[in-house]
Amino acid sequence: MMSVRSTIAAQFEQVATEQKKTLAPLSDDLVLLESGLDSLCFAVIVARLEDALGVDPFSAAEDAEFPVTLGDFVRFYEDAAK
Amino acid sequence: MPQSDRDSLWNLVSAAGRLSDRSLSGANAKVALGDLVRGSSLGGRLEELRGRSVLVATRDQLTAALALVELDGVARRVVLCPPDLPGEHVPLVVATAAADALVTDRAGPEAGAPGVGCVVTCSPNITPTEIERSGRFDTEWILLTSGTTGLPKMVVHTLSSLAGPIKSGDTLGSPGVWSTFYDIRRYGGLQIFLRTLLGGGSLVLSDAQESTGDFLIRAGAHGVTHVSGTPSHWRRALMSPLARRIAPQYVRLSGEIADQAILDHLQAFYPEARVAHAFASTEAGVAFVVGDGLAGVPASLMGRRDADVEMKVEDGSLRIRSARTATGYLGSRGEALADADGFVDTGDMLELLGDRYYFVGRRGGIINVGGRKVYPEEVEAVINRHPRVQMSLVKARKSPITGAIVVADVVVRSPAGPSGAPAGAAALESEILDACRRALAPHKVPAAIRLVPSLDVAASGKLARLDA
After folding, report:
1. What percentage of chain A carries pLDDT values higher than 90?
2. What is the domain-level CATH number for residue A8?
3. Cα gap B36→B69, rounded to integer Å
4. What was the pLDDT predicted at B3?
5. Does the beta carbon of B401 lie under 8 angstroms from any beta carbon of chain A?
């Protein structure tokens, strides 16, 4: 089974290809808004991750701040999947 | 309608105070209102546009803003072309509006519009000049909104219908530094533009070429106090490491359903701000603003006859009647904007839960992706062109990023493969998606396709669409 991290990375790459976006190299400190993906890309990624991982932390989070970097994003999903 | 005795926008701006302290700022230029009222952004060529139907088709919001201040009262009609107006729709817009002049900030062959002879360039470099400014026309302001077929619908407003929601003395008319993630050539952005001009404030305009981060830095540097955008705009801003560069006193959401999560996130992130969500449509105008921090609309706002805006829920959808409503559609083949009693059916479906109404979606399955409308029929038409597709149903899936995204259920003609799924399902899905990507704007392309054995057809013979 793929880890949360690798599932996320695969979705970033898949959606970037589909939407013809140039994806920045994926690292934990990559700022999401500088990844080359737009809001629509993130909407698609979040929907597909919900199907793949069974969680949508964006809809669930009450106090948590929105993720800013890819590292935040991965933790956001890892925490929700616990 | 010539010889109106009302004040033009230019007259109203000129008569206001503190003009030298107030400005309109774009990404590349800033114009003080004090300079604008003593000069012209149109190189002194305003008189050539008198009485004309003028397309305002600029790249920058700032040049459009400057031109609008000058054209109101002088032009017979102004058509606010949004920056993403597809080139193939321009001839239709020109013909429908009987446009005989164009204001642009582009140069060269890009600057033209077919069949429009009079082209005037607009620039943020204000030329000092004395111009006869008396308002002679009750100028029609034409806003474009997308229609069922993907062709633009042209909605007719006047300065008085547009400025109807702006009252002196209320928050929204207070002199502050306003900004908006919207484009001012759309209803939501235009409201903020007019509030700034009529309410005594300054305005920081966004720019399509600028990143969210750069915009936040610039807005922060101008000390913005009032900021508006869709829930999708705000979710994106909250994902920026630069979101704390702005410290707004007032945060406004409109254009999409504001859910409790985004209201809570914004209030937590900007604890000093008053967070409010508003409902407006291009046709019906601003209907209400909710400022109690809760999603949904208090049911007590419905059915009040004494209010500036009358609202009711009929057949599940929100109906609005007020002086802020548009006059009608331009060039529509008899399509009525309001019913016989003057109510506009917004097509937004409400559900009563306790003492509040909540938005549950759009009639006819229209999908709102980050503030942009998608008509399912348009997407289905593309999917159905694939030779192996028998029928398809395009619908919304909830998204915490853009409010909704587009997904499709597809029934395939060919016999099932051994697993029960249609043979070559994965290849077929990607062929359909490729076709969608070629024919449709990215926000209209389904995020996921599900192959299903059948779709419900209602007694009417139409596809069964949920109204939510």
Report:
1. 72
2. 1.10.1200.10
3. 9
4. 42
5. yes
Is A32 within 8 Å of A11 (Cβ atoms)? no
- The domain total for chain A is 1
Residue B1: pLDDT band with limits 50, 70, 90: very low
ipTM rounded to 2 decimals? 0.93
Residue of A nearest to B231 (CA): A39
What DSSP letter does each residue of B5-62 carry, written as one string?
-SPPHHHHHHHSS-GGG-EEE-SS-EEEHHHHTTEESSTT-GGGGTT-EEEE--SSHH
Dihedral (CA of B311, B313, B156, B440) sign: positive
| Chain B hits for A36, Cβ within 8 Å | none
Amino acid identity of residue B248, one-letter, is P
CB contact under 8 A, B370 and A69: no
Q: Which residues contact B450 (CB under 8 A, 6 or more apart)?
A: B407, B408, B409, B410
- Which phi and psi angles does B78 have, rounded to 5°? -120, 135
Arithmetic mean of pLDDT over chain B = 88
> B369–A51: do the CB atoms touch at under 8 Å?
no
Residues on chain A touching B240 (C-beta within 8 angstroms): 31, 33, 68
For residue A73, give its domain range. Answer: 4-81
The DSSP string of B84-109 is T--GGGHHHHHHHTT--EEEES--GG
Find out if CATH 3.30.300.30 is the number for domain B366-451. yes
